[in-house]
């Protein structure tokens, strides 16, 4: 990967060790967020829960890294973006969306969005659809984040509401023109497409001569 | 507000009572998320933190509402969207973005994005910019969510990277044509605009005759 960011290469064994340690923590935080969204607990119960949360935070804060170091997976050559808000296994903001890569540059993800991603009652927030689509179009445009490219423009067309629950996102590259990569994608539920997206991704100047 | 969703009207006093109880819980969860993102705690410490988090979740789960009921603020007439992923005071996924309304239909928000919203190292994930812009354009188009309208299309133009840290989002209505409201907006840092957005918001068929 041509990049101006520092990174470390990790093996599959290191990846799995790291994942085994931290992913259950993320899962616990997602459970907590879901519980907090719909609780009508009284003052004393909320205070007791808060105390537990602050104790957990203090435990983790005692072991604070100075700078998070991006990692590249040795086998796939792809960055492992642990803290990414869409796909990061260490970020409870992410659903997470777990992206699968077809050989031909397409990628897709089956994922579930619960109450934390709700806009109008029962429906996914339109901006959450935009977040997921921006990410997955970026994955397609950069061959799984192995090429440095940034979103230039992205346009979203909402065909109908996207229901909370089980969804699929897909993206693919339509064409490449010089430094511009044109990608398209969509989100769908069991009844078909709910949101369509098209985006232009641009290779930054610093990467154009790096080859 | 014309709506097909049930809701309850709450007074300022009820709003403040609810906020005083639950907002500190959300603040504690945001602190926990930030700590978890950058910790390199060992297995035993992570397990201890996880136990605390699961205890907190169980406390809150004992008081689970059957259905979250949307609330309308008595004074402003605006919905109080407690669990919204952009502005919700009860959703730690939200930064939160706290929106201010000018009299003339413009709205803006000063907010801070930390590590949980990061895409490339040091920069806000492009999709998070899209999430915030979709929301604030929607607020402008619906006069603070008091009119039922849904995103039809939204287009984003990324002028440059948006740095993590202190940011401003703004939105305003450009024009209204029948059931379509055209809104524009932007995100900026101290040096100027980083992302521009334009969106078309559409009044749903069920609301057109309701007046």
From TrEMBL, chains A, B:
Enzyme class: hydrolase
UniProt entry keywords in alphabetical sequence: Apoptosis, Cell membrane, Cell projection, Cytoplasm, Fatty acid metabolism, Hydrolase, Lipid metabolism, Membrane, Transit peptide
Recorded topology in the membrane: Peripheral membrane protein
UniProt GO cellular component terms: cytoplasm; membrane
Entry's localization field: Cell projection, Ruffle membrane; Cytoplasm; Membrane
Main location: membrane
Top-level division of the source organism's lineage: Bacteria
Keyword hit for Iron-sulfur: no
EC number: 3.1.2.2
GO MF annotations, alphabetized: hydrolase activity
The reaction(s) this protein catalyses: (5Z,8Z,11Z,14Z)-eicosatetraenoyl-CoA + H2O = (5Z,8Z,11Z,14Z)-eicosatetraenoate + CoA + H(+); dodecanoyl-CoA + H2O = dodecanoate + CoA + H(+); decanoyl-CoA + H2O = decanoate + CoA + H(+); (9Z)-octadecenoyl-CoA + H2O = (9Z)-octadecenoate + CoA + H(+)
Gene Ontology biological-process annotations: fatty acid metabolic process
Family: Belongs to the THEM4/THEM5 thioesterase family.
Protein name: Acyl-coenzyme A thioesterase THEM4
């Amino acid at each position: 990967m041509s990049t101006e960011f520092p990174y470390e290469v990790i093996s599959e064994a290191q990846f799995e060790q790291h994942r085994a340690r931290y992913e259950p923590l993320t899962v616990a935080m997602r459970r907590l967020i879901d519980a907090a969204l719909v609780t009508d607990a009284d003052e004393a119960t909320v205070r007791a829960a808060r105390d537990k949360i602050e104790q957990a935070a203090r435990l983790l804060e005692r072991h604070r890294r100075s700078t998070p170091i991006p990692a590249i997976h040795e086998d796939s050559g792809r960055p492992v973006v642990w803290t990414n808000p869409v796909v990061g296994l260490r970020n409870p903001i992410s659903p997470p969306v777990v992206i699968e890569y077809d050989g031909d540059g397409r990628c897709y993800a089956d994922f579930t969005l619960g109450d934390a991603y709700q806009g109008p009652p029962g429906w996914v927030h339109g901006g959450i659809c935009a977040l997921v689509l921006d990410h997955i179009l970026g994955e397609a445009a950069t061959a799984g984040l192995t090429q440095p490219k940034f979103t230039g423009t992205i346009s979203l067309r909402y065909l109908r509401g996207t229901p909370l629950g089980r969804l699929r996102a897909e993206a693919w590259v339509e064409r490449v023109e010089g430094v511009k990569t044109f990608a398209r994608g969509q989100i769908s539920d069991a009844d078909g497409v709910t949101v369509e997206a098209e985006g232009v991704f641009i290779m930054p100047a610093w990467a154009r001569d790096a080859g």
